[in-house]
Amino acid sequence: MNLQFFAESDIQKQNSASLKRSIRNLTKRIKEHEEYIKNPYTHIPEWDKYSVFRQEGLKKHWAKEIRNFNESINNRIEELKKRGDYDG
Do 42 and 35 contact (CB within 8 A), yes or no? Predict the structure, then answer.
């Protein structure tokens, strides 16, 4: 399977300000998902009514989303570094 198919192919076409804005937004999403994992009641008030299987599935999903967001951030940072626009 060609994993390049799933790559974010338009990053090179985005301007640097857009990439930086995306990094900020993805960072916020990571914090949200970390909070979901720490305290799922903030996101799902009826958490206690879910089966343990469903609860664990959601926690795994949120953790996977965090990994995806981090990968997207890293892709954008690499592009900014190529351009010489990375602020650190």
Answer: yes
DSSP per residue, 32-62: HHHHHHH-GGGT-TTGGGS-HHHHHHHHHHH
Half-sphere exposure of 85 (CA within 13 A, CB side): 14
Please give the C-alpha separations between residue 61 and each of 27, 34, 65, 86, in angstroms, as whole numbers: 17, 11, 6, 30
Condensed to tens digits (0 to 9), the pLDDT of residues 19-70 reads: 999 999 999 999 999 999 999 999 999 999 999 999 999 999 999 999 999 9
Place of tokens 């990439």: 19
